[in-house]
Fold:
Amino acid sequence: MIIDAIKKINPNAQVTVRGSDINTCEIEWHNGTTPISVADIQAQLPIVEFDMAMEDLRTKRNKLLADTDYLALSDNTMSAEMTTYRQSLRDITNGLTTVEDVNSVTWPTKPGA
Structure:
């Protein structure tokens, strides 16, 4: 996660990080990469954590949508309940601003096909 935070500040940073605690890890900067302060890296960690939580949420959501994609083919008539379920999945990321929001998402219940 530390490298992800560094890459948010400088996407071209060439760096090696040994350890996972920002307060005790060893950061080695390569090929003239300007070092970034620990405070600046720490400031990015909550953003990286949120981005990772959202990525996990979207992965699960996309799998659930893919599991019902066959119902949306033109030769099928999808039930209103399934249409609502799929729209709820698409909308599940709306308004999420914190990791806590992401972790407390209530997933819609899949209706019978």
Q: What stands out?
A: DSSP finds four helices and two strands in the chain. The longest strand covers residues 15-18. Residues 2-103 form one domain.
